[in-house]
Amino acid sequence: MLEVSLRHRFEGFALDVHFRAPPGVTVLFGRSGSGKTSIVNAVAGLLMPDTGRIAAGDWLLLDTERGLRLAPHRRRLGYVFQEGRLFAHLTVRQNLAYGGWFAPKGAQREDFGRVVEMLGIGPLLERRPGALSGGEKQRVAIGRALLSAPRLILADEPLAALDEDRKAEILPYFERLRDTVNIPILYVSHSASEVARLATTVIAIEAGRVVAQGPAQQVLGDPAVLPVGAREAGAVLKARIARHHNDGLTELDAMGVSLFLPRLPQPPGSEVRVRIAAHDVILSRARPEGLSALNILPGVVVEVRQGEGPGALVSLDTVAGRVLARVTQRSALALGLAPGVGVHAVVKSVSVAPSDIGGGRPGGG
Amino acid sequence: MDWLGPDEWRAVALSLQVSFWATLFSLPLGILVAYALARWSFPGKQLLNGLVHLPLILPPVVTGYLLLLTFGRRGVVGQVLDQWFGLVLAFRWTGAALAAAIMAFPLMVRAIRLSIEAVDPKLEQAGATLGASPLWVFLTITLPMALPGIIAGAILAFAKAMGEFGATITFVSNIPGQTRTIPSAIYAFLQAPGGEGPAMKLVLISVGVAMAALLMSEYVGRRVAARVGGR
Description:
The structure holds two protein chains of two kinds.
Chain A: E1 2-10, E2 13-21, E3 25-29, H1 36-44, E4 51-56, E5 59-63, E6 68-69, E7 77-80, H2 92-102, H3 112-119, H4 134-146, E8 152-156, H5 164-180, E9 185-189, H6 192-198, E10 201-206, E11 209-215, H7 216-220, E12 234-244, E13 249-254, E14 257-262, E15 271-277, E16 281-284, E17 295-306, E18 311-318, E19 321-328, H8 329-334, E20 342-347, E21 358-359
Parallel strand pairs in A: 3-9, 3-10, 7-8, 8-9
Antiparallel strand pairs in A: 1-2, 1-4, 4-5, 5-6, 10-11, 12-13, 12-15, 13-14, 15-21, 16-20, 17-18, 17-20, 18-19
Helix pairs in contact in A: 2-4, 4-5
Chain B: H1 6-39, H2 45-57, H3 60-71, H4 76-85, H5 93-117, H6 121-129, H7 134-163, H8 166-172, H9 182-191, H10 196-228
Helix pairs in contact in B: 1-5, 1-7, 2-5, 3-8, 5-7, 5-8, 6-7, 7-10, 9-10
């Protein structure tokens, strides 16, 4: 359990956050400039806040009341930076070993060979960082953090500097880290799809304050949490792969409702998380007939939230879980959308982007 | 080699000796001062910066005279060194090394400071998060990454020390075999009739050493930079 409580004044900006992070991946979610990176830097000791208290389990990192401010090198954290920050004068092998040189003798460490294998960086060991691609650098950076025998892993938008293909390459490694390594992870992101895929817990940050915190499904399905603007809004559903069809579609079973997606690689029976972006959902009062869309979820309106401009965000309870829909205020009025009204959410099967689909945690989430 | 007389030889050997020790002893201090100027903020930083650069701007004679006042037998520091350690600098080759070191110091510090400033502090932060104390960060990250500049600074300082004249002759005079370095020897030869021949040979050696030093610093700098740059 990580407990963070911070206050710090920057010029023209104040940070004032309090949150607790249970084991697993805790994502600090918010738009850029909201203070996420400052929080992570404070946990790492790179930023000394005016006042605060940070504890990882029974390991006290900062307690300004007691005058305790542990120096960064005594905090035993593995920090994966956005830009990798590999040491250019060392080989990949030396970069990986660097943290281990300073870890206490008795510290519980990950096995070098196992980490190298998990990250697929065996062939790179004798190279120097200058000769690596962006994705390879980030894999090495993850390994370097992991091999320093950390009590907590910090990751500050580790995918932000990568293109879509590289993101898709790295994300599974974080999932594997979450599922196989027993070290809590504090992960900064402004990407709803990353959050949907990785987060056990979401802490939504806005203008230096926590606006919501809780389990991923709960926070992401809450329309109040739209730190990145309505375009990124979306809900996360858990589903199980029912069967693969011959026409290239995979049928998912989301609590008894069938969803059709382009063919997924996982075998039938696997659990997946599916993210449905709010702007990909159309609402209809009557059950739609003669529509090309395959995925139709009946539900009940929970809340209609008016945004800036002509849009409105509708959240509905369906059998499969909370779903968000983005409609115009005019449509919301025309359809008479209000809490308690029954509607049908139409999701085009092709609109569920592959990068938004991730393997679910076995027995978790 | 026959074309150099014993006096010329002694001047060349002495110059090499003086420059070598001047560079070796000022290098650690040069790295420390360069690091302090590049990374720390402290009261009196501008004063230190000015002090380091003073020999570059002052007439060398003035620097030499100040050295004589400070490190001469009657000087504040000179007295202490003489009485406590039996160390005399004035009119000795060690004094020539001190004069050369001080005159070359600004060049050395400038080169090293630039290379330390070029080391990304974010990498040093990364080292700290991986458990390296500030000293280890300096030794394993800052120093190796600044190595091209440190080597260039050392070679530049060596070449400057080889050519130092004004401060040296003021502080330690021009004693054959003791303080007569190449520039002092050239000066002495040119004062005497028929000295143009040996003087010209020493001039050629000076030019050769200076060129070799510059080329070497370029070469080593590029080699190390390529290594540090990871190519």
